[in-house]
Amino acid sequence: MTPDAKGRRPGDPSSPYHIVIITPYFWPILCASTHLMKALAEGLVEEGHRVTVLTNGFGAPGSATPDEPPMKGHIHRAWNPFLQRLGVLAKCCEYTWFSIFFLLRGLGVRKIDIIFVASNPPLAGLPAALLAWLKGAKMVYNLQDIFPDSAVVAGILPAGGRAYRWLRKAEEATYRVSDLVVSISPSFSDYVEALVPGTPVATIPNWVDTDHIRPMEEAEEPAIAPFRGGGGFVVQYAGNIGFMQNLETLLLAAEELKGFPDIRFVFIGNGNAKEAMEELARQRGLANCVFLPLQPLEKVPAVYNACDVGVIPLKPGAARIAVPSKTWNYLAVGRPVIGCVEVDSPLADAIRESRSGSVVPASDPAHLAQVILDYRNAPERARLEGRQGRAYAEANLSRRVAIQRYIRMFDHLLEASR
Q1: Which residues contact 200 (CB under 8 A, 6 or more apart)?
Q2: pTM value?
Q3: Domains of the chain (ranges plus CATH)?
């Protein structure tokens, strides 16, 4: 292929792109997106490209953590005094602090080709676009959820108010100034195209490392047993325990099934709503519920293998603006998944397409309890749906497939700008 003005050949690792990934959380800091950004950075490096990560950290700016991933890239961390504090005000301060950091630090990064920024934190796309303009780079906005609707569903922001309208206009402006919006769902892409016609949009689903996260038995991985909570049939929720997760429905389903002592409900994770969920379980005497803390990345395969069925409960409306990536972990380990979501949501579509589980209404604990009981009474069905989910993940959601999609997307973006 013909080199561009900077001497690069699209897709040729001998003349790599320099990609700056802007993400507030990067390994070893734990959150829902940690494994995604780590896998993307390492995958791009493995394909011969240069990667710089601008992220938060607990130490002084630029300091390294002892267990940083050994990748051929640069990781610049900003000490953030608001990192992982609870509360809306603390989160706003954390995001503002981080946005100022990556804008200023990014100015010192040389010869950037692509700036890749996720939609978390909200509105990070605007300072990232400014940075891209100043550095002569292309800006790719990775749409993980629809903002500010996600804040409305979480109960943080009233719908239709002045703040909502201002944030909606800011999000629209982000789409307009992006060289490309890459969303995780076809419905998200349709939303962007309808809201801001003419915006370049691509769809690349989130992924899972199917080599690392795979079906395992306790005989192979003893770490599985502690996460089963002593249950014979384990129903699991693993991930953020926050405002958008409809965990009350799962707890009420657990109450419906108190008469089945072999069924155990295990909640693994942290978040703003965890204390309230634990208190609700205590008030209702739910001895069949176990709460465990968020686990490090190396234990993720054991966590998801420690259940018989995984549950993704979301508040009404949330499934239309977010697609929890934890769903793919259940598919990768060969466990059926129950989505407590609207039947016309992207998550419901994914479950049906992969034939990996069931969809029940977002706030119907009796229905959810019956479906859980059905799985407990039909182990062959559970195993079949688990195998189907694993096959779907390998074919469509693997790390290898996603990285190649991103590289082709970057190729086309840079080639079109020559």
Answers
A1: 178, 179, 180, 181
A2: 0.78
A3: 18-207+398-416 (3.40.50.2000), 222-396 (3.40.50.2000)
